[in-house]
Task: inverse folding
């Protein structure tokens, strides 16, 4: 049974907030939320694989894959706002049904005698109807934590741990989603991963929508219970969104430049393994942020872990082979995962009342925007100037993330001075 304000909390539960949270939402929730994220992680690569097979053109495949991301960018925050207004359940049920139908139609369009323009439109619709499971899961857990009877320190630590867990899950999904696409495509046909994503969407996103936590996800049916939408544009949230944008730039720049590096080095088959080294380390470290001391406050975590990321990016730019690149990416992963978890924790703490899903969707869309932009720009850079030059793009992305972190730290200090000066 979901935890509410009137739910009695036993003393033992007060000593174990993580156990209380798990008991209040059910252990099964975490498995459902994890699998429900897989379809989107499969679609981007799955569409690319299918279109290259269907149309015989890598350029068209790349465009259709990019259109999936652009579609998500265009509607992600709107879907989050709809969930805040009408609740997650109806929004997710509608999105799951529509996207499953769009994905099936996309397969038919790809292999039919249709113009490329229609194929691009269908790909954009596939992204635009993405159910936004990741931000909605974060919003549910933030709402559940807010209703728990624990002291402020325990609530803060639990929220940080939860955002770390969510970021770690996202990392794992986006590392292993493309691997699953490859396995399915080899075992069946290049179209099979897209159809599998449609099946997973209709089954697991629907299950996620029907989970009891959807009723208590922090939405407000009365407009008076929600803060104005303009409060989302407060500086603290915009800086966190800027941070996730820079993080997306890093992801896109690193994957693209790494692909060029491995191809030029004669070991293109190791690209996924090298990128996975960063992803796995990132996920593990992200899930561990709740163990950090409370004195290591979120603004300083942003700075500290970004410096680690920047060091890893610089080492990657100077790598000479697969082994040195692997060590550099392992170090970068130790920085990127905890930084992303910190960004979501900051945004969760700053979210206006009743706008949690919108804020989480804005941050998620910012990652996609950065990743898509970097993939296009760095791809052209690698083709024209080579991998050695392209590998400096992740360094620039990490430096931009550090700039946003320093701006956030300055704002945090200003607020702290104002609060301490208030009698």
Result:
């Amino acid at each position: 049974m979901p935890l509410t304000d009137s739910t009695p909390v036993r003393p033992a539960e007060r000593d174990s907030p993580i156990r209380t949270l798990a008991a209040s939402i059910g252990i099964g929730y975490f498995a459902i939320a994890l699998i429900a994220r897989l379809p989107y992680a499969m679609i981007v690569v799955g569409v690319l694989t299918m279109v290259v097979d269907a149309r015989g053109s890598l350029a068209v495949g790349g465009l259709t894959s990019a259109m999936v991301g652009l579609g998500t960018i265009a509607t992600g925050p709107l879907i989050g706002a709809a969930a805040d207004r009408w609740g997650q359940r109806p929004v997710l049920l509608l999105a799951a049904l529509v996207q499953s139908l769009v994905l099936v139609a996309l397969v038919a369009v790809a292999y039919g005698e249709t113009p490329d323009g229609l194929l691009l439109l269908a790909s954009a619709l596939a992204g635009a109807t993405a159910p936004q499971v990741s931000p909605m899961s974060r919003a549910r857990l933030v709402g559940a934590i807010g209703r728990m009877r624990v002291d402020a320190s325990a609530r803060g630590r639990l929220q940080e741990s939860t955002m770390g867990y969510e970021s770690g899950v996202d990392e794992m999904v986006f590392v292993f989603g493309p691997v699953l696409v490859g396995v399915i495509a080899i075992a069946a046909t290049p179209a099979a991963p897209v159809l599998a994503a449609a099946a997973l969407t209709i089954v697991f996103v629907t299950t996620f929508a029907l989970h009891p936590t959807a009723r208590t996800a922090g939405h407000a049916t009365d407009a008076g219970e929600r803060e104005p939408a303009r409060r989302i544009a407060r500086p603290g949230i915009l800086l966190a969104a800027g941070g996730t944008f820079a993080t997306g730039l890093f992801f896109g720049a690193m994957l693209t430049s790494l692909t060029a590096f491995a191809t030029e080095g004669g070991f293109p088959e190791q690209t996924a393994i090298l990128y996975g080294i960063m992803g796995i380390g990132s996920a593990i470290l992200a899930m561990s942020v709740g163990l950090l001391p409370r004195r290591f406050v979120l603004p300083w975590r942003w700075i500290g872990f970004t410096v680690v990321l920047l060091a890893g990016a610089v080492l990657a730019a100077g790598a000479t082979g697969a082994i040195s690149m692997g060590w550099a990416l392992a170090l970068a992963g130790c920085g990127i995962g905890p930084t992303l978890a910190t960004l979501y924790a900051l945004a969760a703490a700053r979210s206006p009342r009743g706008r949690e899903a919108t804020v989480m969707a804005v941050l998620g869309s910012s990652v996609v925007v950065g990743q898509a932009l970097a993939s296009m720009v760095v791809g052209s850079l690698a083709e024209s100037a080579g991998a050695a030059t392209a590998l400096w793009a992740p360094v620039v992305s990490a430096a931009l993330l550090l700039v946003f972190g320093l701006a956030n730290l300055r704002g945090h200090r200003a607020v702290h001075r104002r609060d301490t000066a208030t009698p």
Remarks:
- The two ends are 43 Å apart (CA to CA).
